[in-house]
Amino acid sequence: MATATKKFDYSVRDSQGKVQKGSIEAPSEAAVANRLREMGLNAVSINEVKTGGLNAEINIPGLSDRVGLKDIAILARQLATMIASGLSLLRSLSILSEQTENKALARTVSTVRGDVESGISLSVALSKHPDTFPPLMINMVRAGEVGGFLDTVLESIARNFESEVRLRGKVKSAMTYPVVVFVIAIVAVVGMLIFIVPVFVTMFENLGGELPLPTQVLVTLSAIMRYGAVPFAIALGFGFWLYKKNKHKRGFREKVEPVYLKVPIFGGLVQKIAIARFTRNLGAMVRSGVPILQSLDIVGEASGNIVIERAAKDVRESVRTGNSLAGPLATHPVFPPMVVQMMAVGEDTGALDQMLDKIADFYDQEVEATTEALTSLIEPLMIAVLGSMIGAMIVALYMPIFGVFDLIN
Questions:
Q1: What distance in Å separates the CA atoms of residue 367 and residue 359, rounded to the nearest whole number?
Q2: Distance of alpha carbon 185 from its chain centroid, rounded?
């Protein structure tokens, strides 16, 4: 169970005799005194801050307590730099708990620091927070502790997570414009059906006569939307909640994730992202000295796609029985022949980690090129679709007005 942390205000006297004030989070007053002593500061006073009332920190579930992969990458980079510079692990964690901008992560690091101070290894302390620190990081840190090269492992973790963050950023930035245009199109169409079309319907009823077919269809859609908008919105929200709740469940993933790879255009992008993530993570763990069987278990789950995870399990069984790593991948269509051949060469030459890094870099570039091509293709298509939808609705609305004089006569 994780150690609870408290906030303390302190006053210290530095080497020049000047009094300085600050605040820090720690499990106890004694832990604060130890940290200040390690920093070469003499404590004058240490007081626990009582949180509550107007001074209580406001936590928004899902927002203020969220720790992203970018935060973990920055943490790993800073910790690697400090340890490589000769700072002790405890002092490095103390500094990080104070300067980390993400408050939730800062509290977690402070707890980890308290656990390490009590004699627990860093990997065990990290494993107490599985929702914050990925299994990949925990196992690589454990390998670094055993092998005595923790700073090198942390550097590898930082590079790995930074590459993952860049990959996600490229995909998100490329998809932002199409998504925004799509949402605007939906809002515009729904707004016209609910608020504008009914005004014309009243005018058409006063004029009398038979409406053209396109106008009749539009009027029918407007009536459906006016009475069905709220139930549809509720159903959509419920469906989204249901997806968020079940998206990590095995049975749901078995049915849905293979479909992702078969979606036209976007299926290839999902495949490239999954392969890049799989090879990058596996390369980082092999290079860090994590046992290959354990590495395959972890990277399969971290790939983000059940198809890749199945392939990783097949590879694991092959390696367990003394066979090659690359052989079973040839039976899984999700892995292109180039990937299988490059991994086979890496095994033969003893440079598997370097070959996996090259594969990951190649697919990173492929993802970037694919997203740019998709953006270039989707932008004009979305504009054309949006214009066609709005234009068709306007024409349908004004078709009866074209014959208004006939209706009046």
A1: 12
A2: 27
Q: Which two tokens stand for residue 125?
A: 């302390």
Quick: pLDDT tens for 42-58.
776 777 776 544 444 44
**Cα 149 to chain centroid, rounded:** 28
Pair of tokens at residue 158: 């930082």
12 strand-pairing partners: 20, 43
Spatial distance between the Cα atoms of 112 and 89, rounded to a whole number of angstroms:
11
Strands 42-48, 19-26: pairing is: unpaired
Extract the tokens encoding 2: 């994780």
Q: Helix, strand, coil shares of the chain as percentages rounded to 5?
A: 75, 5, 20
What radius of gyration, in Å, describes the C-alpha atoms of the chain? 29
Q: What single-letter amino acid sits at 233?
A: A
Whether residue 198 is predicted with pLDDT greater than 60 in this model: the reply is yes
Integer Cα distance of 206 and 400 in angstroms? 12
* Cβ neighbours for 234, distance < 8 A, ≥ 6 positions apart: none
Q: How many residues does the chain have?
A: 409
pLDDT band at 405 (very low <50, low <70, confident <90, very high): low
Answer whether 143's CB lies under 8 Å from 153's CB.
yes
Question: How far apart are the two ends of the chain, measured CA to CA in Å?
Answer: 84
**Residue 10 three-state SS:** strand
Return phi, psi of residue 21, to 5°.
-120, 155
From CA 71, how far away is CA 77, in angstroms rounded? 10
Cβ contact 104:60 at 8 Å: no
**26: its two tokens:** 């720690």
**Percent above pLDDT 90 for the chain:** 1
Partner residues linked to 48 by β-bridges: 8
42-48 β-sheet, strand order: 19-26, 6-13, 42-48
For residue 383 the two structure tokens come to: 């504009």
DSSP at 14: -
CB 186 within 8 A of CB 229: no
Task: Show the tokens assigned to 97.
Answer: 């708990």
CB 294 within 8 A of CB 146: no
Neighbours of 51 (CB within 10 A): 10
